[in-house]
Specification:
The protein is α+β, with helices and mostly antiparallel strands. It has 18 helices and 8 strands. The protein has a 5-stranded mixed beta sheet. It has a 3-stranded antiparallel beta sheet with strand order 6-7-8.
Amino acid sequence: MPVLPMCYPEPGPMKEKLTDTLAAAFVLPAGASDALLWDSVVPGFCLRVRPGGKSWFLSYRPPGMGRAANTKKMKLASIDAVPKVADARKLALIVLGDIARGGDPLAERAKLKAKDRSKLGDLLDRYERDLERRRYVNCKTVMSTLRTRMGRLLSRDVTTITGAEYASIIDTIVSQGRLGAADDFRTRSRAFLTWCVTDAKVLTVNPLAGHRKQRATRADKLAKEMKGRALSDAELVKLWHAADPRTTIGRLIRFLILTGCRRGEGAGLTWAMVEELTEVLNLPAIFTKQGRGHIAPIAPQLRTILALCPRDARSDLVFPSMKTGQEMNGWTKLVDGLRKKSGVDFCLHDLRRTFRTGLSKLGIDPDTAELALGHAREDLEAIYNRDDAIPKIRAAFEAWSNHVSVLVDPPVELKAVA
């Protein structure tokens, strides 16, 4: 039989053999918030009563520390979970046996809790709550990227995941020819891992701290310059007609063409943001990328598009997913379908570039064009206040709306000439 470690009850109270009857009769003295009933059979074993209920506890000193060490109190179980004294004693004796062999059960329990707190999947959940608390605009996109790319690592302890493993994920994306997606994941994951260091404090260093994207070659720079573009008038007409207004994606594409809004701003637009009285879309600060809010006047063509949007009982979204009623997803498949149907090679951000380029071609001054696009520029905010800018922005939106109308549905005399 192992020699049990020295366990010491609190000074003062007497010890007696605990029984089920004594345990049931033991109540909290008047005015007290905590009371202990010590057992005379097993050293350090006691019943603790508090206003919230009764629990079995064990008081012990870490092995090898002697009387110089402070005692630790470890909860064994609640009396509801283990109602019999005999069963609770057995738990105490098992723990005492572990202590006699050099263990420290509370320290081991703390390590297990720390390990649970450092599981990658749980940390991503905490990170998402932190982004939501900070009202981070692209929270859903960021978290979807991280969870999808790190899927096979979610059950791992983050402290055991090496920088090489994260780099391997990035290399895999690069090998698929998706350089933009690789850069995006690198940025998102580095930000998350920095949070693990500074906020969650489960890491001492960021394993991607020294990981930088490769220096761009001349070919890379040329490809990047060619990637983003504004659509020509002919391409705009083809895409407009390919965007069937009877479908949600068709209405959303036409909306993006007319407003220059970002994809997420269109997909997340709610009817509460559509101010019919003042005829504007009022995008709040927490909704836009620049975090300052944006006003987009409702021009005639846009009014027609909004009138075609049915109200969905499942959500307040203007362009909800037909399947779920929530925000649309599966963008790659949707855009690929429109590329094939229209014969136009484009990305959604090209519609924003087309809007901005179109305003310049229509003679809209650069300051107003930037405000119409919702770009946050302190120098513009110093020149215009919100109310003074709206008439100019409205004129810009109406000019663009009229231009698009003429392109996609030219007057009869123009059709005849063509």
